[in-house]
Amino acid sequence: MKFGYFDDVNKEYVITTPKTPLPWINYLGTQDFFSLISNTAGGYSFYKDAKLLRLTRYRYNNSPMDQNGRYYYIKEGDTVWNPGWQPVQTPLDSYQCRHGLGYTVFESSKNSLNAKLLAFVPVHDNCEINLLTLTNYTDAEKEFDLFSYIEFCLWNAADDSSNFQRNFSTGEVEVAGSTIYHKTEYRERRNHYAVYSVNHPVNGFDTSRDAFIGLYNSPADPQAVRKGFCSGSIAHGWAPVASHHIHLKLRPGDSVSLVFVLGYCENPKDKKFSAPGVINKEPADRLLARYQTTEQVMAAFQELKDYWTTLLSAYTIQTEDVRLNRMVNIWNQYQCMVTFNMSRSASYYESGLGRGMGFRDSCQDLLGFVHLIPERARQRILDIAATQFPDGSAYHQYQPLTKRGNMDVGSGFNDDPLWLIAGTAAYLRETGDFSILEEPCTFDNDADSTAPLMEHLRRSFQYTATHKGPHGLPLIGRADWNDCLNLNCFSEEPGESFQTTGPNDGPVAESVFIAGMFVKYGREYAEICDALRLDDERDAVLKEVAAMEETVMDAGWDGDWFLRAYDAMSNPVGSKLCEEGQIFIEPQGMCVMAGIGTDITEDGSPSTAARALRSVEERLDTRYGIILQTPAYTTYHVELGEISSYPPGYKENAGIFCHNNPWISCAETVLGHGSRAFEVFKKTCPAYLEDQSEIRRTEPYVYCQMMAGRDAPTHGEGKNSWLTGTAAWTFTCISQYILGIQPTLQGLRINPCIPSDWSGYTCRRIYRGVSYDITIDNSAHVESGVASVTVDGQPVTGTLIPFDAGKKTCKVEVVLG
Amino acid sequence: MKFGYFDDVNKEYVITTPKTPLPWINYLGTQDFFSLISNTAGGYSFYKDAKLLRLTRYRYNNSPMDQNGRYYYIKEGDTVWNPGWQPVQTPLDSYQCRHGLGYTVFESSKNSLNAKLLAFVPVHDNCEINLLTLTNYTDAEKEFDLFSYIEFCLWNAADDSSNFQRNFSTGEVEVAGSTIYHKTEYRERRNHYAVYSVNHPVNGFDTSRDAFIGLYNSPADPQAVRKGFCSGSIAHGWAPVASHHIHLKLRPGDSVSLVFVLGYCENPKDKKFSAPGVINKEPADRLLARYQTTEQVMAAFQELKDYWTTLLSAYTIQTEDVRLNRMVNIWNQYQCMVTFNMSRSASYYESGLGRGMGFRDSCQDLLGFVHLIPERARQRILDIAATQFPDGSAYHQYQPLTKRGNMDVGSGFNDDPLWLIAGTAAYLRETGDFSILEEPCTFDNDADSTAPLMEHLRRSFQYTATHKGPHGLPLIGRADWNDCLNLNCFSEEPGESFQTTGPNDGPVAESVFIAGMFVKYGREYAEICDALRLDDERDAVLKEVAAMEETVMDAGWDGDWFLRAYDAMSNPVGSKLCEEGQIFIEPQGMCVMAGIGTDITEDGSPSTAARALRSVEERLDTRYGIILQTPAYTTYHVELGEISSYPPGYKENAGIFCHNNPWISCAETVLGHGSRAFEVFKKTCPAYLEDQSEIRRTEPYVYCQMMAGRDAPTHGEGKNSWLTGTAAWTFTCISQYILGIQPTLQGLRINPCIPSDWSGYTCRRIYRGVSYDITIDNSAHVESGVASVTVDGQPVTGTLIPFDAGKKTCKVEVVLG
């Protein structure tokens, strides 16, 4: 079942009912001010940090779901309704929610009164703009009341939801004309306030929730709306809110447009007040002056649209598959940008209370946005590297505001260092900017301990090379990519963190997955050494890599697939010998991507790699994607940790963990299996699951972290949409491994691996400032193999397009065969 | 305006409308299992620890207020209603909520169907019992549906409200017959589950919130109730709930009684499962078997009533003032017991997420409950002392579960050590049990560092004696009793804790309040030394105390009142010289209670103490009580800290902080001002404010921490009811200082200080196992002064009643004059 449709021309997903199976959301904001907005206008806003500077209050896990947002009540006679349906839930005569790139539009109507609500955050201001246009489609004059409503958060969202003995006494506001200022704690140490205004005279206002909503009423039935007027309340403590009341008359066919602005304003410390106790409103005045007219708003909206058009022009395809086109050209890249902006902080599953940027998360996200915003990717890499420990290991997360590492989830996740190589190598391939390797970066943010980025990569590699267990495989530490495989934890107490309990490291537990990473990213590191003409280091690295490859084939192979790990007793994990958890997805994908076991066999039998992927298909595949391992753990295994804490089929315990599905897809392309690679790609790709939205439940335009596996009673149900490394990896998979447009250190390489029934496709790729128009001809209907390449009419040998910075455009014709 | 009335015979407060100005709550539970319950059946339950073992989910600061509770939906035709009005809010034909001692009863009716809901936690079981009796008062048969509803919390309430990316995948339940088992995380490290059952066959059930309520419905309109049947849902992740559906028919005049039990059950680790994946239900079976019949329930209810009757028999009075009688005999002592059980953890203002027991809080609470439960008070003292540092200073809080000190709010609150003397001295006066002083107690919970309790008291005294500032007054450290007077903090950053920022101690900032405490509790310590015949130590202590008294009179006196402190620059705080905050309440109360400046002057002019109290009356008094200081701080003072962070009139910034009002009342009795003492007592006493409930808003049967001061726009509005040291201090004030029934180390002393218009009163006091019947005759209409004392017919000299452990009863007649 569908609950909307893709509008590819406008780059929008159009939701046609407010009652989606879960709230379907969008993100507004590109720089510092962000909002979450659902298809019923729910959500909240924050400035830079979702925990520390939250402007509006949201109620997670509420009943009803998705409560608090930017709400507009229209009261015509006894009928009260909202353009977004919530919170009153009056059945609407028409309803539409269009989620676009950085904006959302609601169009709905009741009794021939039409409301169009456009919500967006402008590129250059710290505010959310709501342009509300009301049109009378009847033959008679309409007279009605409009009430706006937002509820302020007292800035620190964690404190706001727990410290009531203080917070019920601190709330303060000011009101001037049509503008409401939220200034809680401004009297003391805050130099910032929030402002909520409308470009129209008001008939009344409220700033106390009790006055507007009523103590025992709900936002579904505010007492002020019921009465038809606000009471001019000034909040003193309790819950400051903002509501404007505007009485409106519309002649037949007439429209009125109102601009509501929710903004964040700062003052210098010595200019906080214009008079004792009165806040300096200058920054708010300046902000609001820029959005006083519909024309100003539409100009800012156009600027936002241009921003996104420019961004997404870096990679566009045309294939015969419209679902593929819309995912690659619009939604997958859009989601990558959202992961750049949000990391894992604020979604409808991430409450915005954790403040960390993951070391590993951020390095991987980078794979998905480096081509969109290479300059910001550069800074991100340097920020991450600056938190690395001198021995090459890493904090597992760092604070985005201070850019310092923190121990909230500890350290000793032994895959972390290698992801720094992965991210940096991707940046180098995209930009060719080797100067980044010379940038000085601190260790552990210690200004006295600094080395060029290249030295950080070296220590990343060496950390893994020097931390091996009894089988010669890398020690897993607290965990590798699978945070829930905790082999040194042994937790018996409820509530203990699986990620910080037990020793940072153990002398025994090893990870085959990290071994695969070591081979893959070790080779990428060797390529960098090669480019820097560090031939000795390159050779030494490749020797280490080759040895590890051998170790994996020896100690890491279970007979039909790669082992997952050895536990703290040196027992295999992910082996036929196990009762549960016999085969895991991660090492199959990573080892084959690394090229381990891919050598053609002499007798024509399947290669080791092919056998591993066949085992994946036979044992882990489902209609909704590949599950993480099988059989699911039915009891708690103290020696394995959190993975066995989930009910079978959910999350890491045999759920479809979407992040690692593209690894299998990529691995299949390594073996030239284009059809299978694309089949795997499609299984978790949201656009292909749109018809099953009643099962998947999450947004059909973005990936989710997890779908319930076949062991779960809700097989196919998605969770944790939006903020997941899945976005970056699926984009890497489709754009580079399948469609085969591959940045390399030397330039763009074209090497598709596609379903044989495809006839071809085109791609426009802006790469190092050059716009490539690439045509792929698969009249031969092969899965892979390049027969010829022509660049601007000239044939070239091989698949690498010689880079010419002097060109503005470059036409590439590739024939497969 | 009143919203109910006191029923003194039944020891109940009867609320007659569900729409009280704020939710008015009660506490159920006496040992380990506790519930909060509001007058609309809202609230939640927990076992031992409101953060770590919360059974049901509550939504703090919700809109509408007070959402989630134990809800029962009665659906008769199209009419759906709840016995507690919430959450459906259908207007009821009749409604009554009776909050009693450890139980609450709702009686309400709709269309002549009557519902009586009794809720209590039995003395000896870990469960809340809901006995629901439905009666048909019409002449026709009634047929209707009943739905129960609770929402489970996933145990750790902090994690439950933030970690959705995990928690939406962990929920698990089992259902057997009419019993629903909530077993989230039981599969892994938890050995406990919750059970919710009814003693009646069910027509259906739901355990998924989405199935019962509906994603976009609210508890005000569950979709299952609307349809008239449950769907038999089994929760897999998301939000596990429990709902029973029972279809009922009642003939005219007939009743049916149903017993619902919400329980907490544990299993030994090796007996968790009865079959793979199936929880061992034996402890639940045993629990439920004890509450299968109404008779069993009523027997447990009677046991609970007896428990409270016994407790409260320790101190009962009869005066001409019924409001005084009900506060002293019932509600004030009841609130003291609630502070014993809850500390500051779980109220409608304390979210239950902080886990600490305050060192100072617990010592002071003890003053209010030591006469009720001396054995448990003894253990509490030893627990607290065991967290003390070897130098006599203290953690500011400790964990109730582990009984270890923690640094969540730091240490260095320099009043803390002296409160240990205060609490222990109170225990000794009540019990005469000097053996407690010989109990070995650790320092900082270090088994290798142990000393008898007496040594802890010694170090408490010495810590203060050896930490003095330039004026010879005690250093204030992070703060003294007023946590918000932070003289060494100097915080400029929003969100920094005023309690943990800056140094633990400063070399300069001093507290006159601690000086007062040092004199008062130093003397009490000297009395203990005296009783132990430590004459030298006694003399040394008294010498130190005398010196401090002199220092206060010298450096701590501002001319018309006692100074509050010297700040970190040695500037006075609470002085005529200040622009704001010229006079504070705390030192006036504490210094006079300590006897400082009480000497009669030779010229008959008012004593120093009297001048201080007159200044309080002139400058700080309001109709709702005495404000904390004046003038209120209108701007932030970085050198004073949090006190200046509150808007004027709220909390410590010139709010009526109820806790310190009884100090003034006590101080007035020290000067013999019985009328004024009682006048001050009455101002904050809830029973006397019942008629102003629309202004005070909080429960008229319990004290609140704070009422808005005269500088606030909401003067008289109460906040933070229930969990406040106010309860202990007001009870100490009325029972000992005003009514004058004073435990001493030697026995009971009778020394009233009362309004002169009183003719007398009687008191029954159980003290060290002897029941005293005390009659006070004030035919002379004096404020204080004992003319004669007769004990069992024999006149005695002085006011001390010689203690005779051989007596069971003792009749005391006191004539004032």
Explain what the structure shows.
Two copies of one chain form a homodimer. Chain A contains 19 helices and 45 strands. In chain A, the strands form twelve sheets. A ten-stranded antiparallel beta sheet of chain A has the order 1-2-9-10-11-12-19-16-15-14. In chain A, strands 6, 7, 8, 13, 17 and 18 form a six-stranded antiparallel beta sheet that branches. Chain A has a six-stranded mixed beta sheet with strand order 22-40-41-45-42-43. At the A-B interface, α2 of A face α2 of B.
Characteristic key phrases:
19 helices, globular, Beta-galactosidase, Chain A, domain 5, transferase (chains A, B), Glycosyltransferase, 45 strands, alpha+beta, homodimer, ten-stranded antiparallel sheet
Find the count of extended strands of chain A (DSSP E, 2+ residues).
Answer: 45
Relevant CATH superfamily of the domain at 47-90 and 131-310 in chain A:
Glycoside hydrolase, family 65, N-terminal domain
Q: Predict the CATH topology of the domain at 47-90 and 131-310 in chain A.
A: Beta-galactosidase, Chain A, domain 5
The strand line-up of the biggest sheet of chain A is 1-2-9-10-11-12-19-16-15-14
Overall mean pLDDT of chain A stands at: 97
Unreliable stretches of chain A, pLDDT < 50, 5 or more residues?
none
Largest interface: A-B, 79 and 80 residues
- As an assembly, this protein is homodimer
Q: What CATH architecture of the domain at 47-90 and 131-310 in chain A would you give? A: Distorted Sandwich
> Which structural class do the helices and strands of chain A define?
alpha+beta
The outline of chain A comes out as globular
The level 1 CATH classification of the domain at 47-90 and 131-310 in chain A is Mainly Beta
Helix content of chain A: 25-40%
Please outline the major beta sheet of chain A: 10 strands, antiparallel
β-sheet strand percentage of chain A: 25-35%
How large is the radius of gyration of chain A? 28 Å
N-to-C span of chain A: 40 Å
Domain Glycoside hydrolase family 65 C-terminal (chains A, B): 747-797
Keywords (chains A, B): Glycosyltransferase, Hydrolase, Transferase
Domain Glycosyl hydrolase 94 supersandwich (chains A, B): 11-293
InterPro entries (chains A, B): 6-hairpin_glycosidase_sf, 6hp_glycosidase-like_sf, Gal_mutarotase_sf_dom, GH65_N, GH94_catalytic, GH94_Enzymes, GH94N_CBP, Glyco_hydro_65_C
